[in-house]
Each structure stands twice: as C-alpha cells, then as structure tokens.
Amino acid sequence: MQLDLNLLTALDALLEEGSVAGAAARLHVTAPAMSRSLGRIRRTTGDQILVRTGRTMTPTPYAIAVREEVHELLHQVHGVLAPSRELDLATLERTFTLRWHDSLVALGGPSLLAAVRQQAPGVRLRFVAESSIDTPELRRGEVDLEANANRPSAPDIRAESVGETRLVIVVRQGHPLTRVKAVTAKRYAAAEHVTVSRRGNLSNAVDDALASLGLTRRVVATAPTEAAALEFARGSDLLVDVPEATTRSAVADLGLTVLPLPLDLPPASIYLSWHQRYDTDHAHAWLRGLARTALAVRGTSP
Fold it and tell me: Can you give the pLDDT at residue 199?
C-alpha cells in the first residue's frame, strides 16, 4: 500500500473541523478537492470517517478513536520533514561518543565536560580509546566526534583544524641533557629514546628529520600512550618527544623537564572530525562548538 501523507493532513483537518467545508477552508483548498480527499481516505481506511446526520456531519466511532493518534502522527511527520531550528539544552537528553587521542582527552576533556554539564545536564559523554588500526566507526555512526592529529581523507568525513602544537623533549629532572648549554641535534640523536605510537611504530617524522642531517637515533621502546611514555622517561635517561601543548600539565605534575627539540619540524595540527550526516544536527553542532573551544591550543616550543 502506498500512502499519501497529504491524506494524513486532510484527515486531521476533517476530524478537527467536523465538516468538509471547514477542513477545506483550514487547508486553503476547494470543497470539491476536500471531498475527493475524504473519498480516498474512506477507501484507504474502509471507514466512512464522517457521516451526515441532518444538516451536520458526525465522526464515526473509528474516527473518534484515532483522532488523537492522527494528530500526534502529523506532528511527528512535521518534526521529521521540517525539524525545529530551536535547541533546548535544558531538556536535551543524548549520549555522545567521542574518540579522542588520550592526550587530547586530558587536555580538553575536563573543560568540555564542565561546559556540557553546565549547559545541558541531560547530555552524557562517552570517551573511548583510539584503536591501533583505522576503523569506520565515524561512518557507521558509532562515534560522533574524533580528535587527533590525523586529517581524514574520506569525502564524507568533515575535518576542522582546531589547534596546533610543536614537539618538545621531555626528560627526568637531572638528566644529562639538562646540564648542557644547548641541546644539539647530535646530542639529541646520541641519546636513547622511547616513542609514542598506538600502532607500535619505532620511527616517525623525527627520524626523517634526523636522516636529512645524516643522523640516526636509537629507539629502545614504544608506548601506546603519552602518559605511559612519560613514565618511562621519569624513571630513566630515556628521551620522549611529545606535543608541548597537550602534555604541559602532565609534565609539571610528574616533575619532568621540558627541553626544546633541535629539529626544524612544522607544528602538528589537531583535527576535529565528524561524519557529514551531522552537519545540520543542532545538538551535534553545539557539541562541536564546545569541543572546538576546549581544544583550541596554540603550543610553541620553549
């Protein structure tokens, strides 16, 4: 059965007005056109809907029984086809799933959650860990918002740069490099290193920069998160390179020392990513705005 939604509008008007003429005037159509709509409704439902009693028309028991349901269905249809432009944060109830790099959760997660709780107490945030492989959760709608250093290439994934940061060296207090006048590329390469890689990569852009200078370094371990890598550096003479802006507070809390990276590397961008299906979703746009503010950093080397 193919249903014409215009019949739902006509049925609602007929049940509200109780007459063909009244329904026609309400919908700004002619009485004959409304009579034809009533005929189609009768054939579709198998019910007379309105029957004449003297000079007036009376709704049938079926019509009386479905009147409220028809009105509610029409309201729902309007909500789907013409969504409201208003967003009532006080009554919004929704759970958003966010897959952010762990350092970005530490950097912007607390301020984002505080803003969400203040503006929309019915909203919940689910921060989930990044995978060691590329996953299609954004495309499948299982993740609402991503934040990391990767700019997606898929045409249906939106990406916005919300900040940037430079790499710095982090070492324990009293590390031999803290006692030299300047950390040179040669001294940096001569030390032993731990890298941060959720995929376990032993090399990255730093090694390419060193190679251009005819230098190599020894990477003795990788850690899946910056927090774990900082613990390695904290208890040894290992060096770890981390984004300055995203680990500033963690470094201070752990009593570590930050040194400038003696390599000419461009700053790394921080990207906020989402699927295009959420472009016009008002609640999602609101959350993106708060996330943009929470992650808006401009880190520079000391």
Answer: 84
CATH of residue 42: 1.10.10.10
Q: Is 302 among the domain residues?
A: no
Residue type, 149: A
**Burial track 145-163 (b if 16+ CB lie within 10 A, e otherwise):** bbbbeeebeeeebbbeebb
Kindly report the pTM of this predicted structure. 0.65
In a domain, 88, yes or no: no
The token pair that represents 286 in the structure block: 């609101």
| Containing structural domain, residue 45 | 5-81
CA 43 to chain centre: 47
* Residues β-bridged to residue 268: 165
- Report how far residue 97's alpha carbon sits from residue 295's, in angstroms, rounded to the nearest whole number: 17
260-289 confidence digits (pLDDT tens): 999 999 888 889 999 988 988 899 999 999
Residues 151 and 269: their CA atoms lie apart, in Å, by 9
Q: Are 220 and 194 in contact (CB under 8 A)?
A: yes
**pLDDT tens digits, 75-129:** 777 767 766 667 899 999 999 999 998 888 988 999 999 999 999 999 999 999 8
22 lies in some domain: yes
- Return the CATH number at 110: 3.40.190.10
Query: What are the structure tokens assigned to 294, written together?
Result: 């929470």
**Number of separate domains in the chain:** 3
